[in-house]
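Subject — a protein and its fold
Fields — amino acid sequence, structure tokens
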Amino acid sequence: MAAADEKEISGFELLRQPATLALARYLNDHHSVLGFEAYLWRMVVTVDYGHGDPAKFPRPGDPPPPESAVAQMDIHSAVLGEMVFCRAVNSFLTYLADLMTLIYGKYPKKLPSNKQTTYRFCIEHHLAGDLISALAEVTVMELTHQSLDALAKYFQKNLDIVLFTKDTHSVNAGLCVELRNIITHNRGIVNRFFIQRNPRFADDLGKRVVLGEDEKRDMLGTLGYCARQIDLRAIKKFGLETIKPEFKEPADAPSPDGAV
């Protein structure tokens, strides 16, 4: 891959880099979802422990009472986890569509001439002033329904941008999209089509797909890291307008391991 030989910026240096408006929206969406989760859990804990005698609180390590809000939330945490996971993957795909919009907005001649759509679609979005963004969104959605690999090939062929410089990152992103699809379109139940693309789930046919919290966190973290790297490559190649980061590094903070 063309960009694979370039050394990627990581750690705090990555956080200091400027970002496109597309990436800023993507990161803000993550911040919003994390804030919602924190607020929800704070409210749940407040319901159980926000009043009463502290001496009656459960001791560290003791399970919460079955009738408590915390215990009930544990029962439903898998559904919340699926919602958050799908939202994060959708946000990544929307980022790619937004990035494509920025590039085509600055260089409209790069729009593929063989892209077919209806007159009504073009007229409606032209009048609304969002034709390029609409075409970008449709392109991303159509290609990801085929596979993420199809979308990656589109970016490389039409925009000369490599989405993933490492095979492990490409596999991770592909699995994220596949999981998002099976959760969204089949209630998370593993079917033969999903297994065909992801043989590691062969023993889970007919079962609900389950991922550990650490595994989901690592998958989404890698997706976010890739988005930052894609953004830097696009800025360098197309000279896109950027936003300066509002990042302040603590004096005694350890260096992160390349994650978002």
Remarks:
- Residues 11-50+60-238 form one domain.
- The two ends are 23 Å apart (CA to CA).
- Confidence is low (pLDDT under 50) at residues 255-260.
